[in-house]
Amino acid sequence: MISFTKHEGAEITNDMMHGIATLFSENYGIWGTAVEGRRQGQRVRSSPARLKSDCLPEAPARNFLVQAKDADVLIGHVLATRWAFEGLDMCWITQLCICKRYRNQGLATKLLAKLSEHDNDGGYGILSSHPFAVSATLRALGGGLDQVKECTISPRIRDIVASCPVNYVRTAKLRGSLFDSEVTDGTVSCADTGFFVDHAESDTALDEIQRKGIEWPFGRLPEGHEFLVFIERS
C-alpha cells in the first residue's frame, strides 16, 4: 500500500535527504549534448548537500518534503518552499521525482495534492522541462492541462520570481511571448535556467499528451530551459 507523508523544516532529516538524493540520481534524467566532457549522456546526479543547497533555502523560507512510499521503499517525492509575497504565501515546487516503475499512476498528482493540503497558498510555481510534471501540477493545483486553452500568467510573475528565496528560480531568465509580445521563436512560457538535461524523454511525453488531443499551450522548449508554470489562487 502506498502512503504519503508531509514534513516541514527540521522534520526533514539527513536520512530523508539521502533517500531522495538516491531516488533523484537513479530516476531523473540524463545530461544533454550541450554538456561538455564525460557528463554528456550520463545520468543527472545530486548529493544530499547539493539538493539541500539548491532546493531548501534558509529561513525565513519554509521548506517542505512530501514522500510517497510503497511499504518502506521511497518511490516519489516533492520538495517545495513557501515564502511571503505582498501579504500572501507563495509556494514554489523545487523538485518532483517519481521512480520509473511507478510512473503513469497518478503518483505525482497525489504528492502535489498532499503538499497543498491544509495550506492557504496564494499561488504555486514550478520550473520543469518535463511536460508530465507540468500536467501533474495543473491537475493537482489548477484546473488541469486540458482546461488551459491559452497560456496566461500573473502580471506580477516577474516580481514573484524575483522574490523567490530559491536561487535557481530567482536568477532564471524568463523567455517567451508571454513576457515579450515581439517574441516569434515559438517559446511561450519558459525560463533559461542553464539546466541542460536531455529533452528526448520530455519530447516523448509531449507527443503522448498531444496524441490525446490536448493542446500544449506553453510553446517550445530550447536547450537549457524549463517550462514556467504559475497557478494563482484567488
TrEMBL record:
Pfam families, sorted: Acetyltransf_1 (PF00583)
Source organism per UniProt: Aureobasidium melanogenum (strain CBS 110374) (Aureobasidium pullulans var. melanogenum)
SUPFAM superfamilies for this protein: Acyl-CoA N-acyltransferases (Nat)
Annotated ranges, domain N-acetyltransferase: 58-118
Superkingdom of origin organism: Eukaryota
Entry protein name: N-acetyltransferase domain-containing protein
Molecular function, one GO term: acyltransferase activity, transferring groups other than amino-acyl groups
